[in-house]
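Appendix C. Worked example: TnsA endonuclease C terminal
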Amino acid sequence: MSVERDVIHMSKQPWTKEKMNKWIRERGQGTGKDYVPWTKIIDFPSMGRATRIFGVKIPRIYHLQSDGQLRCFLIFEWCDAVVDIRESFPMLNILETIDDKDDLRLDKFRDKETGVPLVLTTSFLLTVRDDSGKERLLARSVKNASELKRSTTIENLEIQRRYWRAKGVEWKLITDKQIPKQFAKNIAWVRETLLDDGMDANQKAEQARLLHDDLIRHSDLKLNDVLNAFDHREGVSQGTALYLFRYLIAKKLIRIDMNQSVQVARKVKDILQ
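Step 2, the predicted output written as structure tokens:
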């Protein structure tokens, strides 16, 4: 991935001061559903692993630039303490913000054709709320470990570290080796049930309640047997109970070990926590 793609939009049009100022007015602004990320998937026409995903906690489309970012997004969204997620957050006014910048190679981060400074971004700016209701910001940069071999990436990360330190915001680097992949996979598996599926919300909640009762009542049975019996008894299509089981997990009405794949051949009591 080139420096430009790492920090800024890559289109065929040149990066000019006019375009930068236009983006500053239009992007990286707002919070919640009104936030507009600095970089969007449309800005990366040839980027193979970019993903757009609709948020469950905040109802808007998120633009994620790698598998690592997608997995981190899923985990952040799952966390009850996280109340807002702003991806591709621009670090504006770097020169004015960072005092100790004499040893930084900011000259590396300019458009090769126009010489206009590139706008660096942090993968995620999170708003977290503690038990007392107090909110604070956390900045997280997500990189593949292989990217850390590049001097430009290291320079980029050091700029981020100093920028957020000057802002009084905790910043950390997350590599793909640190991300619990099965945890993220399980979240993706269950969160689909929280999106609009055409099913009546009240009916879904009521059927899920019935299944919950079955799981508690028949905890000595295999999960697959409980699910199949539910489908047969309720006269619903095969797989409905499994869908509702995923829904119960997504709503956190039942808990499982999210770091392990669900084995339906196991007994219910060995799956539920």
